[in-house]
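Bench log, entry 3. Co-assembly request; chain sequences pasted below exactly as received.
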Amino acid sequence: MPSGSPPETARLRSVARTAALWAAPLAFLALFYALPMAQVLRLSLARGTSLGAPFVEAFASPGVRGVLGFTFLQASLSTLLTLLLGLPGAYLLARYAFRGRSALLALTSVPFVMPTLVVGAAFQALLGPRGWVNLGLMALLGLSQPPIEFLNSLGAILLAHVFYNTTIVLRLVGDFWSHLDPRIEAAARTLGASRWQVLRRVTLPLLFPAIAAASLLVFLFDFTSFGVILILGGPRLATLEVEIYNQTVGLFNLPLAAALSILQLACTLAITVAYTRLAARISRPISLRPRRLTQQPLLGLRRRLAAGLLVGVLLALLVTPLVALAARSVTRLDPVRGQTAPTARGLTTDYYRELWVNRRESVFYVPPSTAVGVSLAYAAATVVLSLALGLPAAWALAYRPASTVSRLFDPLLLLPLGTSAVTLGLGFIVALNRPPFDLRASPVLVPLAHTLVALPFVVRSLTPALRSIRPRLRQAAAVLGAGPAQVVARIDLPLVGRALLVAAAFAFSISLGEFGATALIARPEFPTIPLMIYRFLSLPGALNYGQALALSTILMIVCAAAMLGIERLRIADVGEF
Amino acid sequence: MSVSSSSLDHSAKANPGAGRRTADACTGLRLEGIRKSYGDTQALDGVSLCVPSGSIVAVLGPSGSGKSTLLSIIAGLEVPDSGLVLWEGEPLEGVPSHRRGFGLMFQDFALFPHLNVERNVAFGLQMQGAQAEGTGVRVRECLEQVGLAGFERRDVQTLSGGEQQRVALARALAPRPRLLMLDEPLGALDRTLREHLLGELHRILRAARQTALVVTHDQEEAFGLADQIVILDAGRVVQEGQPQEVYHHPASAVVARFLGLTNLIPGEAAPGGIRTALGLLPLDGPSPGQCTVLLRPDAARLDGQGPLVLEATLHEKTFRGPTCIIGVQAHGVHLNFDVPSAAHLPSEGSPLRLSLDPRTFQVFP
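Structure output for the full assembly:
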């Protein structure tokens, strides 16, 4: 037999293959991430003659210092509260098999895919001045003013953040926990450890990487949260993200906005790097066992009661706002201004019908139905683009995980996730406004930005699926007589096909809900659904409010459907974020 | 007292070149001088062997001896650095895996997670272009053969280890491969299940008159399945022969230890025999100098009569049903023997007179 090709050629060929796979994703990141970010950096450093003047301005201003402090405060508190609710939930989902477990898991993940505007609208529908609780109390007690001041408070922000991110803890920690061999804990018990000692000395140390990774991710999302704070925080409570938006859109102080963006980027970068490190540690199995071997039935009255209570709290927090939103969007409750009695109570489809009417008959007025079409078009473009770029990157990560290139580029792909959406939007504005990339007027800008945001999710959902096609399966197929083409058709594609659908659903729902970047770069004549919701929410009047809720409900249903599809199609038991 | 030299004759026969003598007569699979290295590791160092049509050959070797690499090369999944793989005299060089008509059952089964039991088993038939109707019959037949009738619609991920093993076997058998290779077929299963499935596997392979090549590190698995055993150590064939022949006449101390024969005592050739810790044993040494003496586990009787009596202390006794394994200490050497469990044994720690039959001893250089 020949002695095969020399190792040098084989090495070169594999390097070439890796390079080919990475070429498109990297070019995209360079052009639409690195270049805009570099422009933001340049802008933040230069104003007039002195280098770094915007930074000096930022740090000198007590307002900005306050914003920075508040950003950290609310993110820390939100993370803490999320862990407080999420860890018991993770334990329940990990260690017990009970009826409705997978339904609960699916339900709790619905908030995570909800666009921020939908969440803002949902909490308004529940606790805002026109919300169920306030209107109910007003009717009950005969008040003329809403008794609960929920909007514009720290509490509103924290609640919305817990609502959003509890599923991260449930998923990341719960998943890891459910594969942790319970015999390790049993061994500790037989060695004389009490329940509490087992938790403190064995379970928590083993779970630590998962808990830390989940906390970092939650913190990251809370830190860069935008829509929720814009809607629920009011004018006084601003985070860095909101401040960047205000400086850009409101005051047009681009250098200061750029300096703030760089500041935020530095923070998120540190968090992202820490997260990637920890995530790598989770994926290294310590003694992972299939879930059916680690779970026990819920037996005993006390256990059942505790579990029931926990499920009740989870559902109340995670589902009530969304139900309130949907119900409120078909209910007329508002009192006419100055009166306590509502004009016409009852069910109505007016808010939905109104969406399709061009009431102002103005050329400049964009009817809400346009937003639906625009959003769908952007989402479709995002799906195509992010799959085209994400598939080769995921392929490289799955088959050459140890190569230097893959190790280097893996965290790079996560960067857009760690970069605030508003900063991305700002970058697009300052970088893509001159030839050869004068895209300011172009509608392609929005799907490009959405693709940046969706790409990490696409890659993360494709990589494990591609990796799960162990070389053994292909060998098994080959030995059974399948030629190379048949291996692709019968093994690779069926296994990857589902993952592709999952990735597409992610990209689709991310694009539909994206608000931060879109708020800065969308053309006024092509508004997306979230932009339209924001417009309606900031306008007075019951009809505008109702239309905001109706649009939010539509968006909620579409995104929830996408998420449930993702749930059904996922194959891998141990997921990756 | 003279020791029969028959054992030495046998061990001389069991040399690595034995395969080549029968090479021309080999009708099935033949390997000639297969070499494969990974970096500095020599996984296979000139392996030649023959699997005659209709027979079952087991390659027995410790983990890391290159067994799985050998199967990958035969299956065409890997290319050897040098050497030939031949089927009925035709070299298979350049023939891709899917055209070789060989089956391979993987150690971890490698069942397709997205297909149910039926479609896993039907896979190979469909690759041959079989029509749906024909495959259905054959799939049912194969599932019946492995005792999984009625499992057609089950998801493979819900099966137990033993069931997965059977599905893997049915899948490998279904396309009627001209050679079936099994990589540690029972290695992933627990002990009781292994013993149960070993007999069944043997029965199934025999009933199908399947030409098969099994690799395993478990001598019981090899003895239970194979007509012919090839022992591989560090990438080389160190012995081959029928199971009884190999077991009764291991070619070296390494092979003996690997076969579970652990009573190996270092010795030195001396006038009148071999000097060991047990005293001067009346044996012919292979050559002057250091050697190793093997005492088989069935070499001891409890009557204390005969030409060679060993004064020992009973260290432990383990009841094993028909036999009892006794561990004895004599002159600082620890030895294990099988004795009938019906025999009267003193309590542990008591002295014991054992009579040994030097004719069953074997000497390795």
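Chain A has one domain: 18-569. Confidence is low (pLDDT under 50) at residues 1-5, 336-341, 571-577 of chain A.
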